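pinging the channel bc i need a second pair of eyes. not urgent but kinda urgent?? the chain im working w is below, pasted from the shared doc
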Amino acid sequence: MTCRFSLNIAASLALLSLASGALGALDAQEQRLKLAPLNPAFVKWQEKEKEREWKRRAAQAPGLGAEPADNRFGYIPPPFAHSKLYGPATQIEAMVKAGLGAYPASHDLRTGGVLSPIRNQNPFGTCWTFAALASLEYDIRKTNGTSLDFSEWHLAWFAYNPVGGMPAFTKGSVASGGDPVFDLGGNSMKALAIMSRGTGPVPEGQAPYQNSKNYPQSSLPNGTESTAATVKNVFFFETDDPDAIKGLVQTRGPVAIAMMWPENESAYYNPTTMAFRYRQTGSDIDVNHGVNIVGWNDSFSRTNFPADNRPDSDGAWIVRNSWGSSWGENGYFYMSYDTNFLSPASFAGSPQLDGKIYQYDHLGMLGLLGYGNNTAWISNVFTATRNDAITDVAFYTNSENTAYQITVRTGVTGDPSTGTQVSGPQSGTLELPGYHRIKLTTPVNVSNGSKFAVIVRLVQPPSSASYPIAVIWPYEGYADSHRAAEGSGFASSNGANWSDIISAANLNNVSICLKAFAAAVPASVSIVDPLQVVFTGATVKFQAVVNGADSQSVVWSASAGNIDSQGRYQPPAMPQNVTITAASAGDSSIRNSVSVAVKGCFDDNTPKTPQLLDMAKAFGSAAQADLNKYDLNGDRTIDERDIDILFKGMGW
């Protein structure tokens, strides 16, 4: 098969043992972080990959042939295990069964005209890219009425090639005849990691798929392609309950899954009826291929399956493949309900693009940490690289019905407790595990160069596994190139005492999977507390603040009178309306203006002249002592501001 890379198994397992055994104290109660076990399917795949590597090396001996590549497949299990749903996905089932007594006997997304056309992955092991993007494409097509078609070529390339300062997953060896990039394989978690960090997805036309081993070098993406959408949410879990899958298909669209397609397929696949059944017993399940469930038919006859390999009852999933439209039933086949599959994934996205992403988890989620209970606080401290408005926060959950609480602090000087809380707590419950992007109730403005902390409290149900914290670290053969930013990630068991995640987890370069999404604050100029009336002969000062621009200086101008660079304004001798303007020194198009009325002291105000004269006598005289009478703004002095207040009060 293709999509294989070499791993140092002993070193990898030693790292896992070290992370699990050498634990760091986190707070005053000496709560400790533990690492969740690796995904058994991934461990098994590693062991088999080691055996294959030995065979490849032995094949170099005289008389032995190398194992040939098989470009039909390309799926490898993720390193961590998805949580198990033991009942229907409650939220989705409620959506589907609203007003219904049960799911319909059949459902087929092919009839809706929303699915993108069947594609052919030949001759590469890129099934995982087709499965992930088919799910994302359908969701965006259905919810936004677009006809987007995303590039699998781009996704597969940048999974294993760095771009824009962001790392790539580890390249390994491939079988004889395999491509050094496009046959390395992957999974939905890798697809999510690449796209959620802002590397694509891009339109198919900008990086067209190459159905030839002799592809031109000019076809390889270079990183200048235009991102066409964003990933908003992805559900990840394991389940034996068909209702959970039916609910996702009917409400969200194609579900990407991992399955096993055996090399000796004749005993498992009937090419006449396009019916497939491969039943593995026990919990030790192999997978090698990524496809999409796009519907079901409870009446699909059990006799359609191979004679010696029939299920006990009728019914089958309708499955989308990536072997071209001339294979199967125009590219689709039917899979028995009892065929084993793993890692269902349902993608949701939007054609609306992100401005900026603050993140440290460029390679997504690799494992889970916990304190031995169902609660944890996580935080990433970011340094703003421009004047931004933080609009969304994204993180992972690994259990059903996980409660979250989001807060944001600005002015951070150390751990998250050093900042000032400016947003939240914003609370909610996420009924399904996966990757979630939450929009903040109110955007949080952060200034260029300042530090801010995003904090999330996670509470899993008591019955769930006690590992709420999603992390990434350099894992040999999978994510070697990941590097953490020192002092960026923190964890806490109580929300008060924080500890650096690297020392707390005893994992080198470990980062918390927690992102902040930002929109640039539009550049603007504000004139602070502008005067509405200015009197002839007076000198007043205007002040302005520049937002969202590099230069904080302004250039002042006035339609009449004189104003200097400091905003000191001398009005003209004759009463009139004047426009005062402040423009950004860096960009004169960024400006703001106010209208000011210039008035004479006794202009049109003859009935109040005695009062004005009385007020005037107070200046520069012993009347300064009579603050109770003339100090109208309470600043313990009698000055121009008091006259301004008086005149405004009289309607000037």
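so The longest helix spans residues 40-58. and The first strand starts at residue 34 and ends at 35. — does that match what u expected or am i reading it wrong
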